[in-house]
């Protein structure tokens, strides 16, 4: 079966601590990467962690490393795809549609938002 969340989708965090408590609940962001083996997704601006990297030097002599802020992967069950019409989280479904291209009819699987029926 196809993936319900793909790279480039707009998703919203639906579980976890609220923003008042320093969490990411309700935040929306674009999916940067999908890791299907671990059932995880990397979302832009969500689940930001502080990473300490060893300080070094480049060939030109500039300093590298130090404290960096990077996104960490979230479990796929903690995010939901945002409906393009209502801008609210929705479930994703699949349907078969016939497409005519160059005089040839083809049946294609299409992902759609269950709340509004719009294709994703």
Automatic annotation (TrEMBL):
NCBIfam families: rplX_bact (TIGR01079). GO terms for biological process: translation. Pfam families: ribosomal_L24 (PF17136). SUPFAM superfamilies: Translation proteins SH3-like domain. One of its GO terms (cellular component) is ribonucleoprotein complex. Part of the 50S ribosomal subunit. One of its GO terms (molecular function) is structural constituent of ribosome. It comes from Galactobacter valiniphilus. One of the proteins that surrounds the polypeptide exit tunnel on the outside of the subunit. Residues 46-119 form the Large ribosomal subunit protein uL24 C-terminal domain. Belongs to the universal ribosomal protein uL24 family. This is Large ribosomal subunit protein uL24. It comes from the Bacteria. Keywords: Ribonucleoprotein, Ribosomal protein, RNA-binding, rRNA-binding. InterPro entries: Rib_uL2_dom2 (IPR014722), Ribosomal_uL24 (IPR003256), Ribosomal_uL24_C (IPR057264), Ribosomal_uL24_KOW (IPR041988), Translation_prot_SH3-like_sf (IPR008991).
